[in-house]
Prior knowledge:
The chain is of the alpha+beta class. It folds into two domains: 2-159, 3-Layer(aba) Sandwich (Rossmann fold), CATH 3.40.50.150; 166-274, no CATH class. 26% of the residues lie in helices and 32% in strands. Strands 1, 2, 3, 4, 5, 6, 7 and 8 form an eight-stranded mixed sheet that branches. It has a seven-stranded antiparallel sheet with strand order 9-10-12-13-14-15-11, sandwiched between helices. A two-stranded antiparallel sheet has the order 16-17. Strand 9 (167-169) and strand 10 (176-180) form a beta hairpin.
Amino acid sequence: MDQVVDGPARHKDHSDHPAGAEMVRLLQLLRVEKGNRVLEIGGTEWTSMLLSAMVEPEGRVDPLQADPPLEEMADIRFEPAEDSPGFPEEASYDRIISWSGLDRLPDAWTEHLAEGGVLVAPFSVLPLPDSQVVCRFVKENRKLTDGDVWEGSRSAESASARNGVMWKTGEREGQAWAGADWMKGRKPERWGQRFRTAQGVPSPVRETAASIRPFLLATAPEGLTTAHHPVIGRCIGYSSADGFALAALHERVWLVSDDRHGRVLRQWWDEWGRRGKPDYKDLRASVSGGRVRVVLRR
């Protein structure tokens, strides 16, 4: 198993794919069985070999590439990867997995998924950058049932989701960006400068923002903002044109421009607590018009 975990991380083609333990996790969610026919989108030779080993000798894996990129299309046209038999109209798959992030679910995937089949893919569930989760759907009575949800990987985030960033500065090291509905059609350079130079303060709560993230993705409160700060990294929280209150995903640090914004974020945190601190397991995913959204199960 160590070779499975370490191999993809060293493979030159895996820079845009979940690697190591995350890759293994997605394969486990797929619940592949011997004899399954699997459609793999956006994979590599390495992932195709792993899947083939799981389904052979009776099963098969059809690795496909999308052209143009999935996230740039409303109607998906598949082109077969090298040595692939293609995507015949009569094809029916027991399992479908995408390593590429998606903003919408192509109708063809549901149509070509067999009854009782499983589909696993990362989806952006809000029109914001860094709003991705992994969803697993099962087809029953010709429709996808409400899906289970897990934390997603930004490495698989769709290009259009990344392009949803409304403000950005810097490259690689020291890069800062942010996205919020109120930023659309604006150029919040002054806001961005305040955010980029903000100094972190100790969090007033015990949890990091990674804990509240599923709740915020499901409830999508007004002013919800995702961001990346050059010092504390990925953040989520509240903002307006007048300021911000953002909590780091993996540190107990907040960025707060003023008390008013800080109070709003604290109110969100309190509401999360009153609802029992729901996690990803407490979310369900559904598909409507090709868009995947998540809501609280209770």
